[in-house]
Amino acid sequence: MNHDSAEILPFGKARSHHRAFAPRFREPCQKSLLDAAYGSGGLPVAAADGATKRVAARLTLMGLLDIAEIDEAGGARRLRASEAMLADLARPWHLARPRTAF
Predict the structure, then answer these.
(1) Where are the beta strands (DSSP E) in 6-96?
(2) Which end of the chain is more exposed for a tag (fewer CB within 10 A), N or C?
(3) How far apart are CA 51 and CA 98, in angstroms?
(4) CA distances from residue 71 to 3, 24, 49, 79, 93 in whole angstroms, order as listed
(5) HEC secondary structure over 49-83
(6) SS3 content of the chain, % helix, strand, coil (to 5)
(7) Is residue 86 classed as helix, strand or coil in its secondary structure?
(8) Is the pTM of this model over 0.85?
(9) Do residues 93 and 69 lie in contact, with contact meaning Cβ atoms separated by under 8 Å?
(10) How far apart are CA 32 and CA 19, in angstroms?
């Protein structure tokens, strides 16, 4: 059996080059987003802030945040977790502590 060093890759090296483990774009930290939303009573999120919206949608799936989508007239509509995951970048959001305790 020929063990050519070019054919054998250390486990850690092989994994680090895999696409799933590549560094991603910078997303806000979940803890800091929760701290900001809980500490201030609510947190507005700009319409084009996709990174914050993705983190907020994940936190909504876990039941840690409520998301309200703000329409053109300034009215708010609460988004379900499934809606938040599929929402586009057209409208701003408002993040708040969940209304129901678990």
Answers:
(1) 43-45, 66-70, 76-79, 93-96
(2) N
(3) 21
(4) 64, 31, 16, 12, 9
(5) CHHHHHHHHHHHHCCCCEEEEECCCCCEEEECHHH
(6) 35, 15, 45
(7) helix
(8) no
(9) yes
(10) 27
Residue 23's Cα: distance from chain center in Å? Answer: 15
Structure tokens of 10?
């250390």
Report the alpha-carbon angle 54-50-78, nearest 5.
Answer: 65
The DSSP line for 11-36 is HHHHHHTSGGGS-------HHHHHHH
Q: Nearest to residue 47, comparing CAs of 83, 94, 81?
A: 94
Tokens of 100: 């129901």
Could you read off the pLDDT of 31-62 as tens digits, one per residue? 899 999 999 989 999 999 999 999 999 999 99
Residues 19-37 have a mean pLDDT of: 71
31 and 59 Cβ atoms separated by less than 8 Å: no
